[in-house]
Amino acid sequence: MSTVPSRAGRPGLSRAAGAVRSQLGDPILRRVVAVVLLGSGLATMVILGLSEHGSVLRGLGVPTALLLPGLTVLTCLAEMTVVRLRHGEAVEELSLYEVALIIDVLLLSPRDALIAAAGGLMFASGLQRRPVVKALFNVGTYTAATSVLIIIVHLVAGTPGVMTLHVLVGVVVATIAFTMVNLFCLAQILGVINSQPPWLIVRSEARLSGYMAIGTVATGLTTTEIALHAPLLLPFMAMPALAVTYAYRAAAREAEERSRSGCLLQLSHALAEREDVVRHFVVLVREAFGADLAVVMLENDDVALSVEDDAPGSLRHGPIPPHLAGLRRIDGPVDLSEDLPAGLRRMVVVPIQGGGRRFGTAAFAVHRRDRGWMTTGDISLLASLASALAVAMRGAEHLDRLVDETSKLQAVVEQSAEGIMVIDGDGLVQMWSRALAEMTGIDAADAVGRAVTDVLDVPVEDEQMLLMPVSVAQPKAVSELTVRRPDGEQRRLRLAHSANFTLAALVRDVVVISDLTREYRTERLKSDFIAMVSHELRTPLTPIIGYVDLLRKRGERMTPQKRLDALNLIGDRAGHLSRLVEDLLLASRFGDNPDDISLHVSSAAHDLCALVTQAARDLGSARVRVDLPQMPVSAHCDAGRTLQVLANLIGNGLKYSAEDTEVRVGLRFDETRVHVDVRDQGYGIPTDQLDKVFEKFHRVEDPMTMSTSGTGLGLFIARRLARAMDGDVSVVSTLNTGSVFTLSLTYGELRPE
To answer: What is the mean pLDDT of residues 247-253?
Structure first.
């Protein structure tokens, strides 16, 4: 594994980055190369421009041959005094490198100070096994910053040999410049890693870096002066250094806890929402504990979900590595440091289990040898988080099943032909199904949340059956009532109640509603049909039976004319009865679908004027007035069926109009059809009945109180016959004025001019 810098230098601190894979993006590589070149150029300036300068302070009494390696070792040790501080996906390493650097610059010549600073840094990088890219970045950054520090100190202070005001000012200014160079180089890398503009990082860190620069100056100058004038006190200088290191570590722990708390808070929200919990667990727990690798292996699944430091925001799905497969047998939290896969130095493994069920295993590992990476308390916390994940996964499974069952129930409710309504204990509607909305003409949006008695328009005496037909003793009940829709139509409904009670109080009443309107109408039609047919059959049968009995008993004594009249009447009534039966049989041949034309007709070109004249003549009524063209009008039709339709229309006009009024029959034309209009001066037909008069057995009059005869089949048969001939029958009517029934047929071979 390799690393790149994420932070590279607050004053008094050495900064380096968190680990990522060696396959680095071009932006980071370009910045590393630029920093290395900058450091090399500034170092060359120091060596060439200040080659004749000696040390700023003198008097230590140690030969240069011993002082240079000694300070190099001191610089190396200062760099290895590391306190790690995580910033999101980057890691900041804090050390005492800058304090040692000031001592090097003050006690060594510019060339030797540069060698001690760079040499100590490289030795520390080698001992810490830092990746090449990270080591190059640190060497380049500190070489550039150290060169600036050396140049400023020597230009401002010179080499007086003792502490002067110029030396103090030079060190302060040089340290601030060192900090700015270091912070600028660091911001370039951090900007790429955290996707932020570098200037934002510089602005946010500048104040703290300035404060720490002052602390670095104070520590470095004080240590140097004590070494020059009171070397016996040098051991006591370790105490401030240790105090600073402890303060850094306390700040790092506090920052780490804040970062961890933020990650765990996000994790708690994710587990509570139960959405994609495994991914959130792997990503957030890895970030919270600073792991380089996080893996989750689910039970009964050969796929591992992992996040590594080269792609911290993406979850990888892949086969379980063979060297990790054995971890699935671990039953409790385990901290491993031996026999780990190559590149891993420490791994913590916890089972994901809860509620008596195991869901999988989670493993978190780091590449570095860090004894303080996870404490016993951290491992216990991680085990608790794994248990919380198991609970969330179990809850997610239950939620999925609940959503699935709910969706099934919702589908049943929405697709059910029966209406479904749920009423709470206060009589308010909680649910209103689609089928119920169609029955009542009231949408769910207008019903839910309102009192059911306010939603449905029912008679006052039916409100009790609607609201509370159930009781604790009888929680299920069936009732029937009539509901008036907003459009005025009445519907007969059956309500099947199923109620739940708690302590004698109604909690919920689930009502399944069936529409009985069609059944009631069917029963009414059956009753009406029986009454109507009985009446129509009895009308011709009564005179037939009477005259047959008369002829049987007194026929020999009746005059020939009376016998002939009786026989003619019997024949006429028998013909009427035959036509009635024929109508019934013909109606039975048609389906209920208005577009169903199952009757065979023999269509040809016929003179429609002749057919109208014949139909009027056959009826033998002086009330019929025919207004026809003088020339023939050819129509495409079946002559016999057309006579039947015309006789029905003209006969209806005579039947439903007063005896002293006329029925007028005329022809009119348009581009494609010829129309026969039969106009009467009868009662008229209500607007809502205009389409229904063509339905089977429909009568505008109540069959129990009707004043005219008929089965209600004439217009039904007339329209079906007309449509079978590629024509139609329509009606226009005005109450108390009369009606106009129109037979429309297509032209035959000839059209009138």
So the answer is: 65
For the chain, the C-alpha Rg in angstroms (whole number) is: 53
Whether 499 contacts 489, CB under 8 Å? no
Query: Distance between CA 278 and CA 276 in Å, rounded?
Result: 6
CA–CA separation, 222 vs 227, rounded Å? Answer: 9
Please determine, for residue 224, whether its predicted confidence score (pLDDT) is greater than 80: yes
Burial 688-710 (b: 16+ CB within 10 A, else e): eeeeebbbbbbbbeebeebeeeb
> Tell me, what's the pLDDT at 220?
81
Burial of 652: CB neighbours in 10 Å, binned 0-12, 13-18, 19+: buried
Mean local confidence (pLDDT), 501-527: 80
Whether the Cβ atoms of residue 149 and residue 105 lie closer than 8 Å to each other: yes
How many structural domains compose the chain?
Answer: 5
Reading the block at residue 607, the tokens are 């003179």
- Reported as a single tens digit per residue, the pLDDT across 668-684 is 988 889 999 999 988 88
- The residue type of 187 is A
Handedness of CA 540, 541, 546, 552 (dihedral sign): positive
The single-letter code of the amino acid at 618 is D
Q: Which has more pLDDT, 190 or 562?
A: 562
Q: Are 120 and 74 in contact (CB under 8 A)?
A: yes
pTM over 0.70: no
Are 273 and 360 part of one and the same domain? yes
User: Does one domain contain both 379 and 424?
Assistant: no
Position 216 in a domain: yes
- Domain hosting residue 373, numbered range: 260-399
Beta strands in 489-563 (DSSP E): 490-502, 505-515
Do 3 and 177 form a contact (C-beta atoms < 8 A)?
no
pLDDT digits (tens, 9 = 90+) for 98-135: 888 888 888 888 888 888 888 888 888 888 777 777 77
